[in-house]
Amino acid sequence: MSETPAPDAPANTERSPRRGMCAAVLSLEAIALGLTAPVMITIADVDTSTALSVGLGLAVVCLLLAGMLRAEWAYLAGYVVQVAAIALGFVVPVMFGLGAIFAALWAGADLLGRKIERERAEAWAAWRADQSDAG
User: Fold this and answer.
1) Which residue of 11, 14, 36, 81 could cross-link 55, Cys pair, CB 3.0 to 4.6 Å?
2) Which helix (H) or strand (E) holds 35?
């Protein structure tokens, strides 16, 4: 079965490339953030409960946000998670780099997804205008 809607279907019934790309970034980031907990415990000598709360807590937030990306506020919350991931570098220095990489991926997915959706809407509008002129 094809994912492409019928030609007369509204553009908002299609899957959102922005949401898909951003959800993928958050899902992968959840794995990386979850793995910071054992690193904080063994290398940075962070208290176990604190490390688990921070590492696994951020991982759960990423997964929850990935599912909430239908709401515009979730994208803003995603940027907050990116700042938190970079700030984790004060405890685990490699997170400065890894957090920056995920922040770049997040911003790229958000901005590119917006561009694709805008261009898709413009193409649908042009197609509909051609159809109404022809009919």
Assistant:
1) 36
2) none
Residue whose entry in the numeric block shows the structure tokens 């051609």: 130
Those residues whose C-beta lies under 8 Å from the C-beta of residue 12, and which sit 6 or more positions away, are: none
Report domain extents, the chain: 16-134
Q: Which one-letter DSSP state was computed for residue 78?
A: H
Amino acid identity at 45: D
* Whether residue 106 has pLDDT greater than 60: yes
In eight-state DSSP terms, residue 2 is: -
- Please work out, in degrees rounded to the nearest 5, the angle formed at the alpha carbon of residue 16 by the alpha carbons of 11 and 21: 160
Nearest to 107 by CA among 76, 62, 85: 76
Contacts of 32 (CB under 8 A, 6+ apart): 85, 98, 102
Q: What is the pTM of this model?
A: 0.84
Residues in the chain, total: 135
Q: pLDDT tens, 1-53?
A: 445 554 555 555 578 999 999 999 999 999 999 999 999 999 999 999 999 99
Q: At which residue do the structure tokens 């688990």 appear?
A: 52
